[in-house]
Specification:
Layout: E1 2-3, E2 9-10, H1 15-30, H2 35-45, H3 54-89, H4 99-116, E3 120-127, H5 130-137, H6 139-156, E4 162-167, E5 170-176, H7 180-196, E6 199-201, E7 204-206, E8 210-216, H8 223-238
Antiparallel strand pairs: 1-2, 3-5, 3-8, 4-5, 6-7
Length: about 250
């Protein structure tokens, strides 16, 4: 406290207060928009140049800062939404679509088939003797087999095709602009792919074979009907031409 002439006292500003004031001024200055941006904003807002006083300029600067902050918030929310959608669409174990997302994509491709009169095929795949892998080697080995099968399937199709896990050891492929006979050519190459590049678990090659059912994605059927038809075709192949699921 400083003593003034006449015995009156006057509080002396603390050093910290001075620094705080300086910091506040510096922070405000860091948000100052370039004069050109301010003039452009004033033009958009219809403010005449003669009314562009320092006070108006400060108001425009604050407004521009708030707008940029809102834009950044929108960008952050969009990114988080995209991340959440990806998590919701992906199988919890494998880097491919889960069944819900696969059915949604099947509906989308079906709509495209109807609109543009194109062709597309659905492939329903089931692993043979997969239960014996889990039973003899454990679920860790089974999960590894599933991950390797998913990887091979993704490598075998185009980027525009869709791979999904339909449940357990069952997979689905949506092949856009592909006739069923062309889809069959693709599936018939898979046994050689697994033979040439077998799945290795703890130094031992695991025999891997697939059964598949292929149907066209046609207008007039809902996605579940198409899936059911492909599932039936797969079981017929798996059981030597006869659907014996109820046996």
């Amino acid at each position: 406290m400083k003593i003034e002439p006449g015995g009156q006292s006057r509080p002396t500003r603390a050093a910290g207060d001075s620094r705080k004031s300086s910091t506040k001024t510096s922070t405000s200055a860091s948000f100052t928009a370039p004069a050109r941006d301010i003039n452009d904003s004033a033009s958009v807002l219809g403010i005449p140049e003669e009314e562009l006083t320092p006070r108006v300029q400060a108001a425009i600067t604050n407004l521009m800062t708030e707008v940029e902050s809102l834009r950044q918030s929108i960008r952050d929310l969009t990114r988080r939404l995209n991340d959440a959608e990806q998590v919701a669409d992906q199988d919890p174990l494998l880097p491919i679509y889960n069944r819900r997302a696969f059915v949604r994509e099947l509906a989308r491709v079906k709509a495209s088939v109807e609109r543009y009169q194109t062709e597309a095929s659905l492939v329903y795949i089931d692993l043979n003797q997969f239960k014996s892998v889990n039973d003899s080697l454990g679920h860790e080995a089974g999960d590894y087999v599933l991950s390797q099968v998913a990887l091979r399937l993704k490598e075998s199709v185009r980027d525009t095709d869709i791979v999904g896990r339909l449940g357990g050891d069952e997979f689905g492929l949506i092949l856009a602009r592909t006739k069923p006979q062309d889809a069959r050519h693709l599936i018939d190459r898979l046994p050689k792919l697994f033979a040439d590049k077998p799945i290795i678990w703890k130094g031992a090659a695991l025999p891997t074979s697939l059964s598949s059912g292929i149907v066209p994605i046609s207008a007039g059927e809902n996605p579940e009907q198409t899936l059911s038809a492909a599932d039936t075709a797969m079981y017929k192949e798996k059981n030597g031409g006869e659907d014996r699921r109820g046996a």
